[in-house]
Amino acid sequence: MRRGLTRFDARLSSSCPGIGFTCRITAHVLTEPPFPDTDAGIVSAIRKALRTAAVEVSATCDPADTAMAHDKIAEHLRQERRLPTEPPVVYRAELTLDLLPDDQSAVGALLSAQRKQATADILRRQKTKAIATELSDPAALLVRWIEREDADWSKIPALVGEITKAAEIFAQYRPEHERTVEHQALEVLREFLTSFPDHAQKRMLYTLLAAGMDSAQRPHHAAKAKALLNGYAQPDVPSGT
Fold first, then answer.
1. Burial class (CB in 10 A: 0-12, 13-18, 19+), 214
2. What is the pLDDT of residues 47-82, one digit of tens each?
3. CA separation (Å) from 111 to 35, 99, 118?
4. What are the pLDDT digits (tens) for 184-207?
């Protein structure tokens, strides 16, 4: 029995279809004989149960990280198990885990492809962000339009409204890491403040904002709000007056 349960082979699937682990399992029977079945029957049942138990874990393991896969599967197999016999046969197991050369080559090819894809994704996101940031400025969007070979300068006055709307759409672009509640709150606050174009209204809003920060015991932020308020301290004086 000991010979049949020592370092028997198993082929285990991984989280990547077509790539698998190879392992050797050694089982230890904890129950003293006599056994409720022949030695061959006990060995066959234990080997089948351990292969099944190992696959349950290996199917979630990344073949690029064999050390982590080994630890997870080994921990799973160290648990005491029982054959459904009467009386039950108690056993546990340990294993060694590796990748065959073909699987190692497949993992290398997969990682190379993933790195290339990751690089392409990063460059695409950077380009998208740069273009969206540029075109969120109506002036930049207008420059893009007039740089066209067939641009008709006489149409510019009629296009101003459409260009402004298009720029607002680009301004709403946010990368995934900026789609947090805080960033959304900043957008709401920005829209709220810009909805009061009158100088007196802006001065009142910034005064209230600074007072609220003082009340919340945030003097540093209140000082910044007051500095912004100073920018609205005097209304614009028309030239020539």
1. middle
2. 999 999 999 999 999 999 999 999 999 999 999 999
3. 48, 15, 10
4. 777 777 778 778 878 788 788 888
What angle, 0 to 180 degrees and rounded to 10, lies between the N-to-C axes of helices 138-146 and 101-135? 90
* 23 neighbors 96 (Cβ within 8 angstroms): yes
Burial bucket for residue 115 (CB in 10 Å: 0-12, 13-18, 19+): exposed
Whose structure tokens read 């001065």?
203
Alpha-carbon distance of 241 to 239, in angstroms, equals 6
What letter represents residue 9's amino acid?
D
Q: What is the 3-state secondary structure (H, E, C) of the chain?
A: CCCCCCCEEEEEECCCCCCEEEEEEEEEECCCCCCCCCHHHHHHHHHHHHHHHHHHHHCCCCCCCHHHHHHHHHHHHHCCEEECCCCCEEEEEEEEEECCHHHHHHHHHHHHHHHHHHHHHHHHHHHHHHHHHHHCCHHHHHHHHHCCCCCCHHHHHHHHHHHHHHHHHHHCCCCHHHCCHHHHHHHHHHHHHHCCCCHHHHHHHHHHHHHHHHHCCCHHHHHHHHHHHHCCCCCCCCCCC
pTM > 0.70: yes or no: no
Cα 38 from Cα 42, distance rounded (Å): 6
Report the residue count for the chain.
Answer: 241
